[in-house]
Fold:
Amino acid sequence: MKDTELYSKLLGVKHPWSIAEVKLDLDKNRVDLWVEDASGVKYPCTKCGKLVPVYDHAEEQVWRHLDTCQCETYLHARLPRTKCPEDGVKQIRAPWSGPRSPFTLMFESKLIDTLKECDVTGATRLTVVSWDEAWRVMEKAVERGFARKQMRVPEKMGIDEKSFAKRHNYETIVCDIQRGTVEFVVDDRKKESLEKYYSEFTTEELAEVKAVALDMWDPYIAATKGKVPDAEKKMVFDRFHVFRYMTEAVDKVRRQEAKVLYAVGDERLKGTRYLWLKNADKLTDGQQAQFVALKHVNLKTGRAWAIKETLRKFWRYKYGKCAERFFRRWYFWATHSRLSPIIKAAKTLNRHLDNILTYFKHRITNATAEGINSKIQMIKNMACGFRNREHYKTAIYFHCGGLDLYPRHEVQACA
Ligand SMILES: [Zn+2]
Structure:
């Protein structure tokens, strides 16, 4: 078999295209292939679709293809230009590549696979492309995914905020809890931020929303009430956010108490922050022992902790009515604790109780989209390579958008 024939088969080059020349440079680990089109072939005019003859050929272009053995492989071709009596001279596109891409479709797909598995810098090392080239492929993949995506309102929606970079920058992230995908990323966490998402849909479409998991964050609440019909019955304050209020209150009690104790030379609370915040079963044996000892001395922090931990039971109830009864008892205890951060947090929860109780109807939390949070964390960890916020958003859509990212062959019938 001739080398041109072998490569034609390997690359799946079809009529009217064939490989005319193969050049192997073992010193550079490089294979160059020249592809030519058969003469006398007619192509569809890119405007009207009528089969028209070739007028001339454009300048030679080069595309990076998948490596053959250990060699970087490049395709060269001069693409034909057609002349249509109505539309004039038009450039025919290469069937092996997307418009204005320096890569063949197969190489681009491989690059997308690699980008899914590691960060951009890692992908550039594995595939030997530049950072800008890899990034452009990622952006194009997301654009392509959105062009193919059918925008529809998720039945069960999660709204969350994610910080960006080290400063107090936030992005609002809307998830489809059932599909586990990020549907929308927008700057800030204002009312208008979330409204931007809702305004993509009609009121009828938004009426299809069955439940929305969100933080007790007034701008999100206001946006949801303003746009989603019957929002009061559909909003569920996310249990992890709710619980975080209590955790923060315990930490405030600890800080206040530690200061008082420290002033009289008592260092029992020194270095114990972690013990009060973590789930008890996540502590090491040594920490457990220290914690048990601390719990049994009469400290305010210990009482605050007990109040917080008892609240965990709330979400274990089967029925909302029982959970509400439990909450009333707990609330009485919390508000009579003489621990002002705990009282304040308990009052906040009480004010929002109606939409904490909706959990028992809808049973949703933002953590349902479990994979999303860990993926976004991974994206944040590698975000040091991102030059701006748009890049951060693109990466979130790329990794979490559930988009159809891959380029596809456009079949051009010729004769
Ligand atoms: Zn035409």
